[in-house]
Each structure stands twice: as C-alpha cells, then as structure tokens.
Specification:
By secondary structure, the protein is an alpha+beta fold. The chain has 3 helices and 7 strands. The mean pLDDT is 88.
C-alpha cells in the first residue's frame, strides 16, 4: 500500500543517495536547514520502503521576501518514477508554503524544467550556480 507520510531528516538520506549518486559515489546528503525545527520532510512509502522524498526548509534567496521556503527534491527512486509521486510531493510543499504565507524556490537541473514549469514554477533572476541548474520560483499569488 502506498502512503504519503512525514518523516525525519535522517530518513530522506537513503533516497537522496539513490537519486543523486546511483553509482554509489560520494554525495552530500545532509544540507543546511534539514534539522531546523521549521523544516518538513515528506515521503512516499510503498509498503515498508520509502520510495520518494521532498524537503521544505526556510531559506531566503535573492530579491524574494522573508517568507520564502526552499524545496529540496522531490527525489524519486528510478523504479518508482512516472507514478505521480514527485508531483504530489511538490504540491504538498506548495500547500505548506502557501499556508505559511510565502513562496517557494528550488535549484533544479535544466532537465527538470518541464516538470517544475508544469507545477507553476518560473525562472528566477539568478540563472543558477552553474550551467546545469536553474533557480525556479513559485508564488501562490503569481
């Protein structure tokens, strides 16, 4: 049975590792804000296995206001993609950000632009920290 759950910061790390370093290479799994009391970690559990995760942390960026939340993910195991888990996790992050009175931003690879655009995200003024990622922003009033 598939269920959407809140999880702790440590629980998201195995899924992050599987998505970011599928070859088993070294990758940073703990990020600033993960342990903050306002951070929220969402997951999709299929039976006992966590198959998708997303994190919401309070982090301001650029010209966006103080009530801005950063989305990390969604990260979905390769075998579980195309089932709507990432979209539903992102919608959960958007709902929480909206309830808290702010917008949402994410750094995403260019390959994920279509996914985030389909959920209402637009390119931000910062082109990204490299050629491979973009700053994308979403605000409920936009």
């Amino acid at each position: 049975m598939v269920e959407f759950v809140l999880v702790d910061a440590e629980s998201v790390r195995p899924v992050r590792r599987a998505v970011l370093a599928p070859d088993g290479g070294r990758v940073r799994l703990t990020w600033p804000g993960d342990a903050d009391e306002r951070a929220m970690h969402f997951g999709v559990r299929d039976g006992e296995q966590l198959v998708a995760v997303a994190t919401l942390v309070h982090e301001q960026v650029g010209e966006l206001g103080s009530e801005v939340w950063r989305a990390r993910g969604p990260f979905v195991l390769e075998t579980q993609r195309r089932q709507g888990y990432g979209r539903r996790l992102l919608q959960a992050l958007q709902a929480v950000a909206e309830k808290r009175g702010g917008g949402l931003w994410v750094r995403a690879p260019i390959s994920a632009l279509a996914f985030f655009s389909s959920q209402g995200f637009k390119a931000g003024s910062d082109a990204g920290s490299g050629d491979e990622d973009l700053l994308l922003v979403w605000h409920p009033k936009a």
